[in-house]
Amino acid sequence: MDFQSCVNIQKEWDIVGARQLGRDISRKIGFGTVDQARIATAISELARNIYLYAGTGKVCFETLEDMNKKGIRIVAMDEGPGIQDISQVMEDGFTTSGGLGAGLPGVKRLMDEFDIISHVGEGTEIKVVKWLR
Amino acid sequence: MSTLKLDLENYKELLQEYITTKDEQALYQAEQFSKHSMQQNISPEEIINVHIQSLQEIYPDMPEYIQTSMNFLLETMISYGLAYQEYQTLREKQLELKSEISVAANMQKTLLSTVKPDIDELDVGALSVPAKQMNGDYHHFVHDNKGGLGIAVADVIGKGVPAALCMSMIKYSMDSFSEMQTDPSVILGSLNRVVERNVDASMFITMFYGLYNNNNHTFTYASAGHEPGFYYHKDKDEFEEIDAPGLVLGVSPEITYTQYEKQVEKGDMIVLLTDGVTECRTGDRFIEQEEVLHVIKQYSHLPAQGIVDQVYKHFERLQDFHLRDDFTLIILRRNV
Amino acid sequence: MNLSIDVTKNDGVANVMLGGEVDAFTAPQLKETLLPLTKEQDVVEVNLQDVNYMDSTGLGVFISALKATKEHDSTLRLIHMQDRVYRLFKITGLTEIMNIDSTVQGGM
After folding, report:
1. What residue spans define the domains of chain B?
2. What is the CATH number of the domain that holds A13?
3. Rounded to whole angstroms, how far apart are CA atoms B27 and B33?
4. Nearest CA to C82 among C32, C47, C55?
5. What is the pTM of this model?
6. The Histidine kinase/HSP90-like ATPase domain covers which part of the protein (chain A) (predicted)?
7. What is the three-state SS of chain C?
8. Average pLDDT, consecutive stretches of 10 residues, N- to C-terminus, chain C (108 residues)
9. How many domains does chain A have?
């Protein structure tokens, strides 16, 4: 896949970098303040998951242009331990980070499309899309 | 989205009105607006966004720092919005669970239902009320083919769903026992092996099993660690504890239960209960056995079912109409 | 409704001092303490002198602890039980199969 831009996640500070880049791209696409904030929050969650559970990974951005709609795709990739039970982490009320994070269900709510592939011992890839309305 | 657009106009007008009049009326309408928004699942950041847009329209020359600070506020509200949505989903799930449990409770009722015997020789009163939706207490009447009436009273440790599941297992095992074999000690022995094999180490069940012989009016019984019942001597107007030592079901596989026998005279009563009756707590105080017996005596002129109902009413009131444990009480009285 | 649990270990013997109430809320906490002790110690002695209430969930914890001692070849001993608590062990027949110190403390 060819991405316009990626941010490597290695330290907590990189989460901010990912948010910033994601916000800039969303603004260029034409997202309003509320959606920009939502996209930034989703990026935070994805990047923090990488930082907390995989150690390192990256968050990539792609501008989507269809015939009649525009949007942003964000892909978070890591080669961490992977997720054993995806249904469980997608369940509301299940947060491993002490209940403060919005968790993956939160990310799903903030975005329009959500897809996750994970293999134990190999890593996790989460793809999300937000469309401009 | 279209309803929100409509509301933007509405919100802007309200805001403008309030800014000029500082009138309570506008605040009341703001409250209505917020309730309406919740009904429409509108999250807090969207309301702040509406506020920002309204401000921009009312004050086109709004200083930039206000605009920026409002965006800052919007950003901080995103997580609150998510938490709120999660709460909504969990609430729906909770309702779903509740209705599932009530279906299960009904199934349990059907499964564990027992018919109170109607025999000339014996006046029988029975009541079992769960503290929560599912009952961890169990009582059952069985007629055998030799003119005997078997009575089982049991209590599973704990309350709620796990206790109820365990009780269903007991009921199934009891149904599978031969109708010929009604000796209390044999029945408890067989159940003990079933429970020992099939339940968690910290789970146990207490059971009292009695067999009333309608021909010669003897009461044969054995107990597996169950709360002792009482025997009422009509002639002496006195209660006596029905002492039948025995280990609770499910602790040790190699255990035999001793069987006892009692001759029942006319007007005498047998009172069987679960510890929900004697372990009732009122505030910091426990209800003592004497109190239970006192209430039974007080209503002893009533038919057995009447006594049972009155005792329940008494303890329900003592506990502020909020049972802490399942309550089961059975009274048998020899008529003729 | 609280339960305090103090454990002192000495030469294969664990002394567990309990205080308060053992009920459905506090039983899991007691179980978490007691079960590992039956595995790592030879003797687990539980002092119940300050336990003024126990319900059937509490009994369940001691039953599973007893079963665990059989599995790990250790010993469980209950001492200084109050009247009300002792009654519960007596009714359920557990006094017959458990090592319970018979010098019962006066209730209240």
Report:
1. 2-92, 114-334
2. 3.30.565.10
3. 10
4. C47
5. 0.71
6. 34-133
7. CCEEEEEEEECCEEEEEEEEEECCCCHHHHHHHHHHHHHHCCEEEEEEEEEEEECHHHHHHHHHHHHHHHHHCCEEEEECCEHHHHHHHHHCCHHHCCEECCCCECCC
8. 88 93 89 93 93 87 92 93 89 91 56
9. 1
From residue B153, alpha-carbon distances to B284, B329, C4 in Å are 28, 9, 35
pLDDT tier, A15 (very low <50, low <70, confident <90, very high otherwise)? very high
Alpha-carbon gap, residue B183 to A40, rounded angstroms = 73
pLDDT band at B130 (very low <50, low <70, confident <90, very high): confident
CA distance B273 to chain C (A): 13
User: Do the Cβ atoms of B86 and A106 come within 8 Å?
Assistant: yes
Domains of chain C: 3-100 (3.30.750.24)
Please check whether residue C33 is in contact with residue C3, taking contact to mean a CB–CB distance below 8 angstroms.
no
Overall residue count recorded for chain A in this entry:
133
Quickly list H helices, B134-262: 160-176, 184-198
Could you tell me how many residues make up chain B? 336
d(CA A46, CA A104): 8
ipTM of the modeled complex: 0.84
Diameter of chain A by CA atoms?
A: 43
B114-334 in CATH: which number? 3.60.40.10
C-beta separation of A56 from A78 below 8 A: yes
Q: State how far the alpha carbon of B217 is from the alpha carbons of B77, B140, B267, in Å.
A: 76, 20, 12
Report yes or no on chains B and C touching (3+ CB pairs under 8 A): yes
Neighbour tally for A92: CB within 10 Å: 17
Angle at which helices A33-49 and A12-29 cross, to 10°: 150
Residue A5 corresponds to which tokens in the numbers above? 């831009």
Nearest to B159 by CA among B184, B137, B129: B137
Contacting chains of C (3 CB pairs or more, <8 Å) are: B
Q: How far apart are CA C106 and CA B59, in angstroms?
A: 79
Mutate to test the interface with C, among B202, B256, B284 (most CBs of C within 10 A): B202
Of C24, C60, C68, the CB nearest to B204: C60
Give the pLDDT score at B198.
80
With CA atoms as reference, report the closest residue to B116 among B142, B155, B138, B148.
B142
CATH number of B2-92: 1.10.1240.30
**Closest-approach residue (CA) in chain B for A39:** B78
Range of the domain at A66: 5-131
CA within 13 Å, CB half, B22: 0
Q: Please choose, from the candidates A54, A44, A53, A1, the residue with its C-alpha nearest in 3D space to the C-alpha of residue A22.
A: A44
